[in-house]
Amino acid sequence: MEAGALIAIAVVLFAILIILLIVLFSLKKWMSEPLGECKNMITQLNAETMPKISATIDNLNAVLQSIQELSESELKPMIHNVQEITGQLNEGLGTTMENLNSITASIQQLSETEIKEIASNIQNVTATLSEDVEKIDTVVTTAQEFTTKTIDMAAFYREKLFIPIIDVLSFWNAMKTVLATITHIRMQNEEKQGGESDG
Q1: What is the dihedral of CA 14, 20, 21, 25, to 10 degrees?
Q2: pLDDT tens digits for 72-83?
């Protein structure tokens, strides 16, 4: 039984081995296309992309080196100058603050003496101007009332006198016409009488 069991195990193992070979052969066939594409992509990456990446890294190194040179040649002196100017400003700032404090004290002293007097004078002038404006307002009101009364009186006299004047002028024109007619008739009569006495 041992030999038969061993033969059975060997047959089973041989069958498993054949199945594995069949599976591996199938996998090789199935994987050969993707593996070929992967190989082509890796070859293409090595041939085209890697040199571009290398060139880009070289360019970046050149740019970084230029920035470093610029930093050492331009930025360091500029930072040093800014630090010096800041120090000078800090020194001058104390003097400037003292001057500002002095100016502030002078302005405060001026405001207490001069500006208060000016404000008082302005208040007096404003009060006087206010009184003058009231007087001017009174004069304007009086002039307006006078003008209104004058216009009313003129209208009254125009209405009262204009009609009689027209009547007088009409009467005068009528009288002139009558006198002219009488004079004309008289002259005609005299001419007739003078012509009769001549003849």
Answers
A1: 170
A2: 777 778 777 878
